[in-house]
Amino acid sequence: MPFELSTKQLKTPPSAEKQRLDSIISQQFSDGVWQLSQKREFTFNNDELLIAQNKFFRHDSLPEWEAFSRIEYTYDEDDNLIEILFLRMNDNGDWTNFERYTYSYTEGRVTQMIWATWFISLQEWRDNYELEYEYDAQDYLINTFQYKLYDQSGDLIARTAYDRDDEGRLLTYTIYLWNPVDEIWSPFDRDYYLYDDVQNLVTRTNERNIGNEWVNYSQGNFTYNNDYQYDDLIVDGTIEQYRHQRVYEEYSGWNQDLEEWNDIGGRSDYYYSSLLTNIENAALPQLRIFPNPTNGVINFDIKNPTFANIKLYDAQGKYMNTQSLQNNQISVKHLNSGVYFYELFHEGEIFGGKFIVK
Length: 358
Description:
Elements: E1 19-30, E2 33-44, E3 50-59, E4 62-75, E5 81-89, E6 95-106, E7 109-119, E8 124-135, E9 141-148, E10 156-164, E11 170-179, E12 184-195, E13 201-210, E14 213-223, E15 230-235, E16 238-255, E17 260-261, E18 266-274, H1 276-280, E19 289-290, E20 297-300, E21 309-313, E22 319-324, E23 329-331, E24 338-346, E25 349-357
Antiparallel strand pairs: 1-2, 1-18, 2-3, 3-4, 4-5, 5-6, 6-7, 7-8, 8-9, 9-10, 10-11, 11-12, 12-13, 13-14, 14-16, 15-16, 16-17, 16-18, 19-20, 20-23, 21-22, 21-24, 24-25
């Protein structure tokens, strides 16, 4: 089913207060070793709205990350999501149209979505499906109804139902297919969700309906690290650091013959970065730095600087690079004029602040 909209309406990736999802890196367990397989990177605007998502692949015969697809998000002046554009990389290395979702709103709620496909030969969009949305009294999404447009019939073909608990948490996500002959809904596919005591999603299980019985198909289990520690990951032979927002997902398939879950076959790690509020609200101890503003170097008033790493972020809080402190200073000559943020790691402590480049 297509991408849905708000946390009230559906499920969202595991997240954290004052944290922003930067990337998801997936691995497959093959021949006794974990192998990198997929990476998704997320871009946000100044209002913290998701504006782009890039997907990359790699495997044994493709040792480097290769761009595969891109998703772009457009909002109206009220920050309502009005369009999702799916792009694919062609053989010439250019992004080309693939699919498009266009949303309509009534009183602040999405009520309709048109799902269109790009026809390369005609160089035009063709509408494939229409989705209509139904809500309960608390404005939670409870049903979407899917109609086919590709044959211009407008016939009803599917429904997705969302069941929640009293706190609004999604419990099941069930797809039904419409049988026009018998005029009944036939269950087809569903996910159900389990949470821990602090409402973190811990298990997501997918089932398929076979012979009017629900049969296990796949399962994802989430593990959380509440310390928000930096996590080293070797990518392309170099160590890159990510703030690891406690989440990694392990998934496996159901063995119908043995009636048990197979060994873990894949995992996804969710990597997050600090939002600006973490630093601006003095969540980290401050250091005296000078000169500030600067146009060349920054000096840090720190004792015993035997070894210290400094991570730099731009004005939107996006990670830029890591530098090592040399003689209590770093060079910022390569930076354009503007506001920047830093996090300094020294003898087990983390310091933070901001500076201005003239």
